[in-house]
Amino acid sequence: MNSNPALIVLEVIAVIAFILWRQVRTTEVASGAIRGPIIIGGIGLLNLSQFMRHHVVASGEIAALVVGLLLAVAIAWPRAHSMKVWRDADGRWFKRGTPMTIVWWAVLMVSHVAVTIAVPAAFGEKVSGFSAFDGATIMVFLGVSLAAQALFTEHHLQRCFPGQRISGISLAK
To answer: How many structural domains comprise the chain?
Structure first.
């Protein structure tokens, strides 16, 4: 894991830019849609485990991580429903993010920053902005949010188009 804060911020910005680019493109709703979020989350878990081997993590930081992950899932619900979904003439399902999808991503990121500052402060811990722990956990946060969005999108399709959606979320493509 890289411990240079500037490099971590650049890496996170690059990942978020890639995610936003993918969100606004027209893409097929594939059965393997959860693989990407699992990979991102797995990288995050690896970063977190490496970080925790060498650092003491304060209780406020752990609480902020839990609250942040709950927010990641909660905000994925309206974000998934902000996606335009349709079926083409061949029966394939497609999705594309709308401007509201980007708004929900902005809400998520602002909420994440607020939680990483406010929760440790509520525990009486020193708050220094973007911490090394935040750098170690951001990929877990993004992976959980994307996985929840994929599951909610699939749920939305199955609920809105009963009997028309045969395959669901899986790791296989």
So the answer is: 1
170 within some domain: no
Domain that holds residue 144: 35-160
**171 located within any domain:** no
3-class secondary structure for the chain?
CCCCHHHHHHHHHHHHHHHHHHHHCCEECCCCCCHHHHHHHHHHHHHHHHHHHHCCCCHHHHHHHHHHHHHHHHHHHHHHHCCEEEECCCCCEEEECCHHHHHHHHHHHHHHHHHHHHHHHHCCCCCCCCCHHHHHHHHHHHHHHHHHHHHHHHHHHHHHCCCCCCCCCCCCC
* 80 contacts 153 by C-beta, under 8 angstroms: yes
**pLDDT tens readout for residues 35-47:** 889 999 998 899 8
- Confidence at 167, pLDDT banded by 50, 70, 90: low
**Domain membership flag for residue 99:** yes
Q: Which amino acid is at 144?
A: V
Residue 9 within any structural domain of the chain: no
